[in-house]
Specification:
Elements: E1 3-10, H1 13-23, E2 27-32, E3 35-40, E4 43-49, E5 59-64, H2 69-77, E6 91-93, E7 98-104, E8 110-116, E9 134-142, H3 145-154, E10 169-174, E11 177-183, E12 200-204, E13 208-212, E14 218-222
Parallel strand pairs: 1-4, 5-8, 9-11
Antiparallel strand pairs: 1-12, 2-3, 3-4, 5-9, 6-7, 7-8, 10-11, 12-13, 13-14
Length: 223
Amino acid sequence: MLISKVIIYSSVIDEMKQFYVNELGFELINSKESSFKIKVGDSELEFQNDPANRNPFYHFAFNIPSNQFKEAKNWAKTKVALNTEEGSDEVYFKQSDAYSFYFLDPSDNIVEFISRQSLSPKSNDIFSAISILNISEINITTHDVLSCGNQLIDFGIPVRDENSLEESFNFMGSKGAFLLLGSEKRKSFFSDKEAKIHPLSIEIDKVKIISMDELGNIKLGLL
């Protein structure tokens, strides 16, 4: 599965463009007065201005080469302050055989860089934003996890490792690309922020579209 494109919202769109393009060095695909889109490896990430000024925030992750976790972390530390959890600024996930670190962007999005040791390719290039492989994860927060999860399953997006659907939180997807389906007020990892419903749009494999409005209503369709 490939998360080919994500559209999320921000109340500080100018600061976000400065941060991602000028500070982190992502390739700018296009830019308008109220939005901009960057290249994230094989994925695209678009930020749109939130006209209601609700200060929306999300959690998303980027896959990076399997051999560049330390290099990517050192690169990030020259640009941002890393988040910590129990005194550590990184974590190893045994189930996924992956290392991650986290930081906040100007919209208070919880940004994760994840190096999947068993799935991601290696790279011999010097690490930079253009080394990122693709979008690895994006959260979907909803008031009805089971209903939303069953709709995603019927849409061809399974629970990770064919696990049963859980009422509070699920990894939906496969092969290093996951929708993090969870309930409101769930504490985000490496953050003290509680998850809230915010609108977004997710494109899967350049074929499927998953969208959620500000009320938490999910809509599924094909391109």
